[in-house]
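With this grant's support, we have paired protein sequences with backbone structure tokens. One protein thus recorded is set out beneath this paragraph:

_____
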Amino acid sequence: MSTSDNRRALISLIDNQQLYPLFQPVVDTTRGCVIGHESLIRGPKGHVLEFPDKLFSVAHESDLLSELELACRYAAIKEFQRRGMTGKLFLNVNPNVLKDDSHPHGSTLRLSQQLGLDPHQIVIEISERYPIEDTENLKEAIIHYRQLGFMIAIDDLGAGYSGLKLWSELHPDYVKIDRYFIQDIHESSVKRVFVQSILSLAKNIQTKVIAEGIETKDELEQLHALGIKHCQGYLFGRPAKLPARDVNTSLLNTYQPTKSSYHETIASVVNSLETIADDEPALEALNRFTKNASLSLLPVTRYQQVVGVLRREKLLERFSGSYGHALNASKHVVHIMEKEPIAVDWRASLEDVSQLITEHEETDVYQHIIVTRNNRYYGVASIKSLLRKITELKINDARHANPLTQLPGNVAINRVINEKLKAQTPFSVAYFDLNHFKPYNDIYGYEQGDQVIKWVAQLLQKRLTGCSNFVGHIGGDDFVVIFDHSAGNAGLVENSCKNVIELFDRDVIQFYQEEHIKLGGIKAVNREGHPTFFSLLSIAVGVVSPDAKLCESHHDVALLATEAKKEAKRFGGSHCYLCHRQAPRRLKLVSSHS
């Protein structure tokens, strides 16, 4: 087709409203729910302009970008509402359209108002794939969108033109990491470092990170280990007219957060509470609050799924005044409820929920959290009870923490292992032990020895503390790291431990005098009282993956890990030994008559 034919075809699609959206879910794996959908526009099937690359290429050549953008937004918002979808609607926007003077200002707000979608549900995605010539005008446009209530995301971060500069200047609510950095991330240390850097930046400036293009469980497990919780990709659902609204629970099994020893789940503080259907009249809700003075919240459900909440004080405020009763009594609950309450899966750890409410701008201590199970209503937990529980656990942990490193001690370590055995959750234990630490202490003194211990603790925390790892200090120069993972993931654990060994061997010389560095060790008295040469400090690591069916308690796991650590120490220098046995050797009882 000629350029003019393409232009006429595009105008026809726009005028006849033949463009339609596909939706792909964006998932929060901590809460176990779909938080929104990205709209991906299509032309009629088999049409020369069916796919977006051709659509937008023709629009650019024909000077119809603004018209196409508005048609795409209209189609997406209209279909989103028609299907009764909830959560966020992520809309892709060419940044150069936003700064185009001919682009009608306020059009997206008018569309959302016309079609009945709250602006705060819409996330404007600015793609980094387009060159941006005028960032000042773009910033003004983004500020304008924010003032209208829309959220902002940078899409395809790392794909090209201006990512970090755009991020620093726009302060987006979300950044979406380009799929190039997600593909096979479990096999690329460079990609892992990139994603870790993005997460660190995002945490400091309070931006949420979404990993795009996730296609395999291996990729998902690695992202979980790094701390990514917002995910998108074929693994969770392909773009479709009828989008996925639930999360495949088998994918959530890879996420068993245990960042600290107070990793009990939100289920421990859940209370049951009556609910109200979204098609009930508001007057019914008012009557329930009136009859029950202690009732402060009503979760609103549709087919057992929570779609919103009614809070006592806000509902009473609606019904107050001269016309409050007349205006609201016959309205359905769905039209007056608060949408998108804080909701988490019943398996979410207390610490993860605590972090979630900290990130939530409008949270107060008297609010409640909706708790779901298999995406259905399970109960509510008050933020006050959550904070009280965490405080109790923190106090208990502090009582048993190692006084030198403040890491959880044996009590917490044993508890975590016992809980995993009871739940039959796949996990690995890495036992870290320093070689030649006693002679080092004899030569350099206990104060210097303590500095080494604290440095090792910091190294383990920095390199191995992820959303699924637990770092504990047994005592002296012995440490334990507990890794959560799916079966067959021991290779990742081994690689992480080898990375620690590499850093340890590189940096341990900072604790030695120059003469000992040149000699490669120190001369000291051995345990038998004989002068002996000891090489520089090294670190032995024994890694085991216990079988919960064969290990009865933390005692069995400790025996197994100790055996693996002894094998690692036999190699002399720093070494990681991966033990393939999943239970300790049992002592055979010998009969006195034999």
Observations:
- The chain has three domains: 25-35+86-252, 266-388, 401-578.
- The longest helix spans residues 446-464.
- Confidence is low (pLDDT under 50) at residues 253-262, 587-594.
